[in-house]
Amino acid sequence: MIARIAAPVELTRLYRSFLESLKARGFQGEISPDYGNRTVLATDNSIYQRLPQAALFPQHAEDVQRIAALAAEPEYREIVLTPRGGGTGTNGQSLTHGLVVDLSRNMNRILEINAKERWVRVQAGVVKDQLNAALKPHGLFFAPELSTSNRATLGGMINTDASGQGSCTYGKTRDHVLALDSILLGGQRLHTGPVSDQELGGLSASEGRLGEVHRTVLDVQREHADLIAASFPRLNRCLTGYDLAHIRDADGRFNLNNILCGSEGSLGFLVEAKLNVLPIPKHSVLVNVSYASFMEALRDARALMAMAPLSIETVDSKVLNLAMKDIVWHDVAEYFPADPATPTLGINLVEFSGDDAAALEAKVASFVEHLKGDTSVRRIGHTLARGSAAVSKVYAMRKRAVGLLGNVQGEVRPQPFVEDTAVPPEALADFIAEFRALLDGFNLQYGMFGHVDAGVLHVRPALDMKDPAQAALVRPISDGVARLTHKYGGLLWGEHGKGVRSEYAPKFFGELYPALQAIKSAFDPFNQLNPGKIATPLGARDELLKIDEVTLRGDLDRQIDERIWRSYESAVHCNGNGACYNYDPNDAMCPSWKATRERTQSPKGRASLIREWLRLQGQSGVDVLQAANDARVRSPFNGLLAKVRNTLGKRRGDEDFSHEVFDAMSGCLACKSCAGQCPVKVNAPEFRSRFLELYHSRYLRPLKDYLIGSLEFSIPYFAKVPSIYNGLMRLGVTRAFLKHHAGMVDSPLLSRIDLEPVLEHWNVEGASPERLRMLSAEQRERSVILVQDAFTRYFETQVLADLIEVLSRLGFRVLLAPYRPNGKPLQVLGFLGAFEKAARKNAAMLNELGGHGVKLVGLDPAMTLVYRQEYRKLLGQEAPEVLLPQEWLAQVLAESPVTAAGDDYYLLGHCTEKTNAPAATALWPEVFKRLGLNLKAVSVGCCGMSGTYGHETANRETSEKIYDLSWRKVVEDKAGHQRLLANGYSCRSQADRLSGVELAHPIQALLRVLSAR
């Protein structure tokens, strides 16, 4: 049995007092001192881990003012505050031992779009892709392009002065900032932008901190102008963080924006920004150049830049090979044809864009001629991606490079701590040669990608941070890379901010470092705002953080037993890249996060919690692997009294960190989008089910678990009397009982359709080894075995009947496998012992049938994919091969000579299938095409049902929120519902339940057409 765990680190008295005072002063946002939120916010995408005292989620700028004003009072000068946006930093920028002020949850509105004057006004928590989606109808976009654009907040981008692809053309974030609204320590509101000397005089004379910061920055500019001009390297990336070189703009106006951009929240709280936006180029072409050597790709950069492209992105073979194993490769494989004789070890992605199509084509043609004629380096070949859709697909692969580097096998994995160096582009190849020699000297592997046009390359040395000897290499490698970038006139931090690496700031700023300290003193005299980053106040006792004195993730990870670590690798290897924080409502990734905006309700959050839970269980002397084995063999009645006592204690409020983990796991839909889309393949449903098994070895299960878990076993009996079952389900007393005692807000009704006449009409026989042996080889080729699942068999019998008719009309012999419980509900709920028994029994039957050379086909994607995921993990090669309908149809239907004509059909794809079997999803249009029909995929996220999730009382509100994100509008606005299709049982059920629309299965659309011919 698992142990009860109290929060191991309590809040200090000072912080408790601060939080109480803050609430008393009218703070309207959320205050989260719970250990779960603190644990999730203790990490970002770096190697560090710092447990905060609590998290604050302000509702608006007035809330931020309350925080800042209270913290400035003498009794609270020891309080530390750190702003946080997307939390995807690679250098610990938003990690703190004090209070996290998360501006992303509530302050995420686009306040104003002025398309005519090309500017926008946004709150700090707006995500970059969210802004660009709103700007697209106006033909505009916000230019700085990041690999994390689907979760990076604009406040975070400004605070790190972020840049990325295309920065040589479009510049950095700072180049697009028109005005900022910030809140200073003490609560004063600071509005910044370019000002004349006359306006500056008035601002410098202001009272309080407002006047102090203007006077101090002006003094720094006047006193150190010559030294600043001589010290800063002439790089596209500049020296981010208190950008002394740009205190005055090119026109001579004083501009505090350039000090605040890149300040990492160490000077104040950014709450709003006014940004300039640009017209979207009408045409774009991406030239994908392949090389037999990564160094050749780097050396080619100078020649390629001479052709003045928009950008040049470089990827090495390690990243490319990882991409080939990822979901993203399905969309880009055609642009990177494999040649076994000459493997590709490096690529350059060279983009050209413009509004004049003819001029653009001429430029690309000239560039291609250059590639053919230039022999300065050896190029394998090139391909062209034309148009924004194609270009976006290739860049999606490049964007995933950061996360993909974490998806290697074993414990030695690429780590981000020297990954964004910047040197003059002409020196990049020589610099990287020495960089590689440095890493080779430690016998390390590494991956590389970056922006060669800007001289920025991302390099991640591979280390096992749980090994103290390998973790100790962070210091000599960092020192070596710092020396190397200094030697080549570059920077250690080219675009991802300083964070914990701020200890190198005095070296790079030299004589100007005291000027940074003076600025910090004016804004934050008592070092309360993100201390230890960029600079300390003059005379402060506090020092900058040291890269090897901050707690590392590995320091805590090595406390987890190695056996347990390996067993839970789908959780513990989460590297914090934050791909699960994807804002896009039309993307299936983690619907629970999108609906709740709770970090604990995300794959990263759940992985962080389970990782800490495993560590604490180990500290309590619990072997969770043994506890799981015990739970599976023990009688359900064994320890029942102890479970009752523990559950009563929970209701009385007994503290146990396991309850916080349970709440996070209970919110998971088990849709497995994370397993398919996370670059590191964090599989929340997998470790969720294992946790639930262990949790309920200590605490009683709710009645709904037993009802849902036994559904596949009991439903055939209920189906014998559907009228009685449905009548009982409709009774008010039954519904009340289900809602208040069983935790189910409603339940689907059994189908009244009798399958037997359908089977008889189409001569469908039961599949048995004896019957299959009687078939000739030719008959087996024209036969198919349908594998039944509980949902389409008993709740949607018509869909199964229609599948039988479609296959029969196409000339195939249909055999029906005996119904057996698949076990998915058991697996989802953590009845893993029962699931194993059901899976082994079902697999044995299906393997025996499939062994006769007739393909097995399952109808529902969620149930069918269990055979190639959970069954395969459990049974290995003994897992049966069960195809999805479109996979089988694509194999047996001949290519159609008929050109598709007529009205289009539209498919709302099942999220598990889209993210875990994308190639299968893409086959539906192909199947329709072979039958002379058009089918288009509609971009939607999750429907919010996911099995029985939407039927559960606790999840009803979240389920509907998820449905509202993308499905409701499509379902209710799309004209002609007969042509709007959905291939998931849960999806069709949700549309009927919440919109009153009965969506057809793709098979049913095919049947209508076949019946009419």
Question: What does this molecule look like?
Answer:
- There is one protein chain.
- Strands 14, 15, 16, 17, 18, 19, 20 and 21 form an eight-stranded antiparallel β-sheet that branches.
- The protein is an alpha/beta fold.
- The model has no long low-confidence stretch (mean pLDDT 93).
- It is globular.
- The longest helix has 24 residues, at 208-231.
- Among the domains are: 283-493, Vanillyl-alcohol Oxidase, Chain A, domain 3, CATH 3.40.462.10; 559-700, Fumarate Reductase Iron-sulfur Protein, Chain B, domain 2; 701-883, no CATH class; 896-1013.
- Helix 8 runs antiparallel to helix 21 (513-523).
Secondary structure elements and their pairing?
Layout: H1 13-24, E1 30-32, H2 35-40, E2 54-57, H3 61-71, E3 81-84, E4 99-102, E5 110-114, E6 119-123, H4 128-135, E7 140-141, H5 154-159, H6 167-170, E8 177-183, E9 189-192, E10 194-195, H7 197-204, H8 208-231, E11 254-255, H9 257-260, E12 269-276, E13 278-279, E14 283-291, H10 294-299, H11 301-305, E15 311-316, H12 317-324, H13 329-332, E16 346-354, H14 357-373, E17 379-386, H15 387-399, H16 401-404, E18 413-414, E19 421-422, H17 428-440, E20 446-451, E21 456-463, H18 468-471, H19 474-487, H20 505-509, H21 513-523, H22 553-557, H23 562-567, H24 569-572, H25 591-596, H26 603-619, H27 624-633, H28 640-652, H29 657-666, H30 673-677, H31 684-695, H32 703-709, H33 711-718, H34 722-730, H35 732-740, H36 755-761, E22 765-766, H37 769-773, H38 777-781, E23 783-787, H39 790-794, H40 797-809, E24 813-816, H41 824-829, H42 832-850, E25 856-858, H43 861-864, H44 870-875, E26 882-883, H45 885-892, E27 904-908, H46 911-916, H47 918-921, H48 923-930, E28 934-938, H49 956-973, E29 980-982, H50 985-995, H51 1002-1012
Parallel strand pairs: 2-4, 3-4, 22-24, 23-24, 23-25, 25-26, 27-28, 27-29
Antiparallel strand pairs: 1-2, 5-6, 6-12, 7-13, 8-9, 8-12, 10-11, 14-16, 14-17, 15-16, 15-20, 18-21, 19-21, 20-21
Helix pairs in contact: 8-21, 17-19, 26-29, 26-31, 29-31, 40-51, 45-48, 49-50
